[in-house]
Description:
Layout: E1 10-15, H1 22-32, E2 35-38, H2 39-46, H3 52-61, H4 74-81, H5 85-112, E3 117-121, E4 136-141, H6 144-153, H7 158-167, H8 171-175, E5 181-184, H9 189-207
Parallel strand pairs: 1-3, 1-4, 2-3, 4-5
Helix pairs in contact: 2-5, 3-5, 6-7
Amino acid sequence: MTRDSASRSVRIGITGPIGCGKSTVARWLGELGARVIDADQVAREVTRAGSPELAAIIETFGPVVIDAVGALDRRALGRIVFADPAALARLESIIHPAVRPRILAAIAAAEQEGVAAVAIEAIKLVEGGLAELCDEVWLVTCEPSVQRDRLTARGADVADAEARIAAQSDLVARLTPAASRVIDTTGTLDQTHSRVLAAWADALSSRML
């Protein structure tokens, strides 16, 4: 979807494999003035305790995905779905229909407030149909060795990190045709930050055309 007018917020979709730095890029855009919408955070909200989505997840995957206080155990669920594409598809069929309306509402609210840019961070930006809402799609990538190190630094064991990376092994190839820009985060934070600043300035300049 292209912008209806120069007054509408620039919509930047941020996507890419796990551990490549999507959240860091989104945070920087937030510091620059963008309204950041985190699809993963929205998914956490729709799967809160007592929600119909959580009930559907329990029915589909069993009580093993619930922790001691009745909340969703995302790590346990991840071990199931990242090892089984069919299980991942079932999970997405539960969550995505609840997430999309909330994201649309958040975009509308930001634009009602006159925010210059909206950044939508979502690993399933393209597959979930959110990319079509965006003026630009930023594909955030890094070398697999860096990706693995970042995941283990977050607390994942090596086997879990490798399984998650393997589950997304073709993601960059699939998303590249939809990408307006590729942001490689393999280098230093300063190098990546410079790339993001340049991309941000270029994206905002298009708002004036």
